[in-house]
Amino acid sequence: MNIKRAMALAGLLGTGMLASAPAAALDLTCGGACPWVTYGDGNSFLLQYNAYIYNQLNGGGVGPGNPYYIDSTPGAIKDLTVIGTGTSSNPATTNTSGMDDAYPTPNSSGIPYFSTGTTADPNGANEFTGDGAGTWDVSLGALKSFMGTDNSLIFFFNNNQIKSGGAVNEGLAGWAQITLRDAAGNVIGVFDLTNQGDKFATIADGGGGTLLGDPTAYTHAGALDNPLIGTNAATDYILSGGKQCLNAGGALVSCSDPTATQSFDANLGANQAAYAIVFPELDAQLMSLFAGDITNYSMNVNLRMGCDPGIGDQADCVGRSLNNGYEQVFLSTASNLKQVPEPGVLALLGIGMIGLWGGTLRRRG
């Protein structure tokens, strides 16, 4: 992995040029200062890193009150759209008309895998006509109403693995596929969150993903609902959880590297979202469809987490299995969340920040 630079935050802070502007809707890029990792069609943001950047620029800490501290307790997500949750309490498990209710994810240890295709559908016979089997489904009419004037969906995920036993116990495997279907049930769009057959590892340890990647560079190919299970050397499942680390110079390095001085946790528990994921091409197609007749159109989410039962060698379940339960996936838009003040020069500083991340090339195994 040839990741050269990450951030020179101390230098930016030393400019003394940071002043707050009026509040705006949540900006996952922090005006250009916060990086992402692209997995197929999705851009993934590590929220603990975002919170750290925001705190350095604005103060206030990284806990509650920081706009990138996303509360995922049942009370906090009850008015959002929940795809999967470990809680059994309403209304967090019940979505509005035109949407499947939340799938029940494992809420205790001993269940190493979750899939919308193998878990009892919470809606039974009340499925949408023309949807995909084994998916969480929403009519585009209901989705349009939920999004309102926003033009981007944000998928939030909380990682709730055990903290004991070292880093390997904090990670789990995740993969998702989103399809759009027209009124006749024909697939008109496919969007994958995928490791693309790379090593099951963090990006700094040689895993898949592209730092500051471009989702348009990836195009789905092949059958639906068919991730490469593979081995830990090559799989479509992404490593979720654990930590990302920087050295004293701000470079992204393996957390096992003795020069690592700063770490960002991704295993934050059931009450705080660890990742925010956006699909720019999905958003663009939705906006185009919303301008026309979307009667009986649907969006279908195929979600898988943990050690796939189809894996051949149990050694390749290391770091993949669900071991604690209560992982959650929920949908929001920027305006549904807390407002974020944007420093007046943050966008300009972000240009320099991206330059520092720049030159990072994707490692292919």
UniProtKB/TrEMBL annotation:
Keywords: Signal. Residues 1-25 form the signal peptide. This is Ice-binding protein C-terminal domain-containing protein. It holds the Pfam family PEP-CTERM. It comes from Thauera phenylacetica B4P. The keyword Signal applies. The keyword Signal applies. The lineage of its organism: Bacteria, Pseudomonadati, Pseudomonadota, Betaproteobacteria, Rhodocyclales. Residues 339-363 form the Ice-binding protein C-terminal domain. NCBIfam families: PEP_CTERM. InterPro entries: Ice-binding_C.
